[in-house]
Amino acid sequence: MTCLLRLSKLGIYWAAPGVLITLAPPVKSLVRFGSYEFEPYSGELRRQGIRVHLEGQPLAILKILLERPGDLVTREDLQKELWRQDTFVDFEHSLNAAVKRLRAALNDSADHPRYIETLARRGYRFVAPVNGVNSRSEASGVSPSAAPVVPAFRDRSLWLSAGLVLFTLAVVIAGWRHWHQPPAPPAAEVIRSLAVLPLQNLSGDPSQEYFADGMTEELIGKLAKIHGLRVISRTSAMHFKNTQLSVPEIAKTLGVDAIVEGSVIREGNQIRVHAQLIRAANDEHIWAEEYQREYRNVLAIQDEVARSIVYQIAIGLAPGERKNLTASQTVDPDAHEDYLKGRFYFNQRTEDSLSKSIGYFQKAVAKDPSYSLAYSGLADAYALLGFRGGLPSKDTLSRAKAAALKAVELDDTLAEAHASLAFIAETHEWDWARAEREYKRALELAPGDARAHHWYAGYLTYVGRIQDGIAEEKRARDLDPLSLPVNNALAGRLLVAGRLSEAQDQVQKTLELDSHFAPAHQTLGWAYLNLGKHQEAIKEFHLAVELSGTDDMDRMLDLGFAYAVTGKQSEARKILIQLKQLHEPGLVPSGSIAILYGALGELDEAFAWLNRAYQERDPELTYLKVPGRRFEPLRHDPRFHEIVRRVGLPD
């Protein structure tokens, strides 16, 4: 008996007397539906032979739906497949946007679906007929009827020969597939988070540093408005100014998928910006571009860069988000210059620098009365001075509200202004319902605004929703992981929840970022006080005062409180005298004096001052319901509950 075994690029066949078996090489299967063909191996979608651009989450959703045609794929299933459990993302909006982009690629309609049907509040179903197709056999035109016929074997030896040959064929096929079929290329990770590193000032003029920093902040602000994309806040990004760390090292520290870096050169009325997008995992440069414009078009450059980044990472945009990335309002170049200088000084957060920032913001609105961002900057600076600064709070918070209202009047989509209005409604007006509406509006407009999440976490804590406050503060930390105030605030939220061990751990993490950060020592002092470790508490409060300066009456108040509740009355009364002296010019609020009288056990005096604080709209009363802190000695007096009711907080 004569046998022939042959391996070729086109196929493997074996011939014996009266027998012909042909085996094609491994092929890639196609999935066909309607006028489309989809190749799962490569992720290619074609319509009538022409490739359709599809990648990222829409591509992943199509694969999942085609694996289960006709079956319901729940939104929860898609969430597990597309987003890691620890990913902070507006899942509902991101999934809707991804499905919308997939439908656009398929020319499908949600109202009259040909391919993807929406099952309200449940999920999606692929409704079109799906056929698996062998691409090689179809391409070659071989039909089942054309296959060779194998006649019956007539004797036992032929059966044995056939079995041996088939076994040999199996071995050859396995080897051929192992050596000749390339492994599936790893799918590129979908970019769901990024950080914009400080743009380098290459102008050769150090005085232009504010301009590079300002452009960085504005670009972060634009990207932070996009749902489904976690953008690291300016505070954390600025930690890497002039850093020598590699992109993968920075990305690992910040927990992001990609990094944007670049430079800016300003020469006269010309500006040149270079930007590039780098995938963190392998340092792959995904995109790079250079822009040169006149300075008056600087805002248009920021829009172009933001749009390019969004296109490269294939994030779906809602109509409102698309509008935010279109050309910005025309702004007087000199006004924009003053605005950037105002932001530069605002970010230094000292009383002197805040006053300077107000001056520059005022110059900006004088030059361009329609400049909404400058009004928003004014609102921020006045609010911060009124709440923590050395100016009377009632006056400065009123000015902050006027500036924020003007900003919203000029541009109702300005998230920063809505956040300022929420902060003022909460701390000055005690309009708790409006405060929550404004916070939610701000976060709807800019879901990546770490400051808005941080402030909203405070609001939730003050109204007694303590666990919600912790969750919201964690969102702020995810967006601003190196922020000292945010990390310290998270420790404070854990502390008032009674989670003392977690609070201490979080304080230590904050101090690892900066061991000289006075508010963290202040929080640690409260943790020790709640644990009954009085000497340790006084030591930490002392250190907080030393680090911040003896003119910081907020830290001094806590030191006085610790003295009073631990039996050191004389030391506490010395601080009380200081507070009352500074109350006369309006530099210490009445609420602070009420708190210290309460700690000393003089409740009548405490409530007399608390009533004055109510009349003054003292922001200190925002903290009335916070357990384990300054108002604790007054909590069991019936007069306290009356004050809580008048302030409007749920008792």
Largest sheet entry: 6 strands, mixed
The poorly predicted ranges are 1-28, 133-160, 176-187
Q: Provide the structure class.
A: alpha+beta
Helix content range of the residues, please? 40-55%
CATH architecture of the domain at 193-328: 3-Layer(aba) Sandwich
Strand residues, percent: 5-15%
CATH homologous superfamily descriptor of the domain at 193-328 = ABC-type transport auxiliary lipoprotein component
Q: The CATH topology of the domain at 193-328, please?
A: Rossmann fold
User: How many DSSP-defined strands?
Assistant: 17
Highest-level CATH class of the domain at 193-328: Alpha Beta
Q: Based on CA inertia axes, which overall geometry fits? A: globular
Average pLDDT, rounded to a whole number, is 82
> Distance between the terminal alpha carbons, to the nearest Å?
98 Å
Can you count the helices? 27
Whole-angstrom Rg: 33 Å
Description:
The structure is a single chain. With 651 residues, the chain is α+β, with helices and mostly antiparallel strands. Among the domains are: 4-28 and 135-180, no CATH class; 35-128, Orthogonal Bundle (Arc Repressor Mutant, subunit A), CATH 1.10.10.10; 193-328, Rossmann fold, CATH 3.40.50; 550-651. The protein has 27 helices and 17 strands. Strands 12, 13, 14, 15, 16 and 17 form a 6-stranded mixed β-sheet that branches. The chain has a 5-stranded antiparallel β-sheet with strand order 7-6-5-4-11. Strands 1-2-3 form a 3-stranded antiparallel β-sheet, covered by helices on one side. α20 packs antiparallel against α21 (518-530). The longest helix is centred in the N-terminal third of the chain and has 25 residues, at 156-180.
